[in-house]
Structure formats: C-alpha cells, structure tokens
Amino acid sequence: MASPTPRIDAFNPSGVLAGKRRMPEGTFLRYLPGKSWSRSIRDRLTSRIFNQGDTLPLGPKHQTVCIVLGGCLVQERFPFGTGKDAPVVVRFRGAGDFLGEAKLIEPAAHVRTVCLSTTWVMTCPLRRMKVLLNRHPEAELALLRSLEARNRSDEKIYCTADRPPLDRVSTLLLHLARTAGTRNPDDPDQIVIDGPRQSDLARALLLGQSTVENAVAELRRKHRVIASNYRQLIVTDIARLERIVTPAPPETE
Question: In this predicted model, what pLDDT tens digit does every residue of 185-205 receive, in sequence order?
C-alpha cells in the first residue's frame, strides 16, 4: 500500500518560505537575516517532504546539505564504528537547523539522519551551498553562530549526567517543544511533538528506558505538564515545564 501523502499545513509553508516564521532560538534560520533567505538563498534550494522513517540524503555518497523547515529528526553518530554494541551518539534536530555541515569541510563526512515524523526540508547540492556561503558572508556567519549555539545547547541537554533524571528529561522535552513542536489547532496552549518515543529519549540521554518512563510519568501525573500518545508527546503547560527546568532562585532576605 502506498504511503499517504504527507501533510505540511502545520508548517505554515507560505510564512516559512517568506521568512516570516520565527525560527527557534540558536538555529541557522534564526540567525540568517530574513532578506538573505527570501532574496538570495531560498530560490537556490529544493523543497522536499520526507515521511516518518525516511533517511535524509546525507550519507557518505550524497553531495547535499539540508535545512530543516519543519518536523523532528534524530541524528546518530558512530564514533567507534558500527559493530555490535558499539556506542552511538544520538541527538535530536528540528526546524531551522542546518544539517550536513561537516560536508563543507569533508564531502564524505556523514551522520545518519532519520525522520521521526513527517519532515519538510530544503536540500541543496554541496557545491552550490559553498558558493552561496562565499557570496553571502551573513549566511556564513549565521551558520557559524548556529553551530556554536547548537554545541552549547547539546552540552546543556545531553552532557549533564550529574543532574537528576527528571531535570534531564524535562530539559530535553522543553527543547523538543521549542524546535520540533507544533501548536494543537484545537487547543493552542498545547504543543504537540510528533515522532520521538520514550526509548528515543533514553538513547539520547544515555538513561535506562524505565528511568525515562518514570520521569515522564511524574511529569504527567504529578506536575501535569505532559501527555503522551503513541510516538507523540504533548506539552500541556510549557510555562510550568520551563519552571521545572529552570526553577526560580530562592528569595534572599
């Protein structure tokens, strides 16, 4: 049976392509000036929709880079090879992100990038992207700033093993809500994150699945900031989730 035609209405195509949608903090498209996107770069890229489970064309033989306009993706890096039980570095990516940046230095570089939900990206041949970045210094600067911001964000989300599991899971869910979430049209206060399973969160955070399940259950039952369905997490109170991630400092006398 053929796959159903993906829907991209949640991505607001006209607003995104016109550079009017505010992209997540710290991403390439957030740093890139709107006029550079709409006048100089957008028309040189090809818009594509990928289904859940699709792998982006960023393998060692692909000579493309991608800019994410909507959806949720997971990137897997294998620093010690792909043998049995070899460690895997897992990171989530979402709207506004530039993917495949290592190819600008080493064309054969790759990170396995899989769509966890219907995903909308702009693809660009590697050679053309190099020309665009050379011709538009503001785009090159936006890329460098976004990579530094991504490194700092990744450190805060994935590299804080000394924090309690609830804090770590809450931080990741808040990040996913901001970068891969869409507003529920029936209840705009709810932010829907399609794609990630609790097992995906566990792999990314290097936590046991039961530990993540317990944290999500606490966020759902005690704090009432999360609801969950199959391959779908729903943030029901993002302001309260933010307070869990960054509690207010104690008052001083």
Answer: 788 789 999 999 999 999 999
